[in-house]
Design brief:
Number of domains: 2
Structural class: mainly alpha
Shape: globular
Oligomer: single chain
């Protein structure tokens, strides 16, 4: 996937032509690419001997994916990893940190000069508002899995009735996702499903924390999961098969051996 990302960036796609400056890799969308790359990056860090692969190959692919939610998730996860491992591994972390900052700075300044453009964030806020409107109508059991796209139009109509100018300057009037895993869970299955899902994830994070502090490989996976959960504030991790499967793989790794 990273190879195809580089090929598209260079304007010579190997598999899926995406157009100049467009990154879709093999899974169809730049945000999907960034979200997925968080998993192999932290997996390489966990395997230790492959950390150079992540540093020189996967992190640059994450940057050129243009997925800002993935950038934020990586920054939080890597920052947390650095914080929890200091002062034991200063040299390794200094190398990681310095090169990551250089790559990120290069990517932001030269490749995405419009990084501070907030149009897509404003659009996501509209998704969230429509999602919250759906949740208010069906708070306990939700509207059924993947029901957002069928209920969102009525939700938008109710919001517009209260605020006629709400739809102005919103370029996507036919949203299919909430673009927030937490609101999506509430919309799909209500409070019942959201509590069950996130209590389960939180329990594994809590129970595996002490083992993570004793084992750098486990800590890398732990911080990788945190990175994915942060990315999920702006992304629908549970709706894309590859990211949903990898989320459960990370949970399985952390839960292994816990009693």
């Amino acid at each position: 996937m990273s190879i195809e990302t580089y090929a598209q960036w260079l304007g010579d796609s190997l598999i899926f032509p995406a157009g100049v400056g467009v990154i879709t890799s093999t899974i169809g969308n730049s945000n999907y690419v960034a979200a997925y790359l968080l998993f192999p990056i932290f997996a390489c860090l966990a395997l230790r001997k492959t950390w150079l692969l992540a540093l020189l190959f996967l992190i640059p692919a994450l940057i050129i994916s243009r997925g800002r939610a993935g950038w934020i998730g990586f920054a939080v996860g890597m920052g947390l990893y650095a914080w929890l491992t200091l002062p034991k591994h200063r040299v390794r972390l200094a190398i990681w940190g310095a090169v990551s900052i250089l790559i990120a700075t290069w990517g932001v300044i030269t490749y995405k000069p419009d990084v501070l453009n907030s149009d897509t964030l404003r659009c996501r806020v509209k998704y969230w508002q429509a999602g919250w409107e759906i949740i208010r109508e069906n708070p306990v059991l939700g509207i059924g899995f993947d029901g957002y796209r069928s209920e969102v139009y009525e939700a938008q109509a109710r919001i517009i009735k209260r605020d006629p100018g709400w739809m102005k300057k919103w370029y996507d009037k036919k949203p299919r996702r909430v673009h927030n895993m937490y609101l999506e869970a509430l919309a799909d299955g209500g409070i019942v499903w959201a509590i069950a899902l996130f209590a389960f994830i939180g329990r594994i994070l809590y129970r595996s924390y002490h083992r993570a502090r004793e084992d750098l490989s486990v800590l890398a996976v732990w911080c990788g999961l945190v990175a994915v959960l942060v990315n999920s504030i702006f992304f629908f991790t549970a709706k894309i098969l590859v990211t949903w499967v990898m989320l459960w793989v990370f949970l399985g790794i952390l839960d292994r051996g816990e009693k």
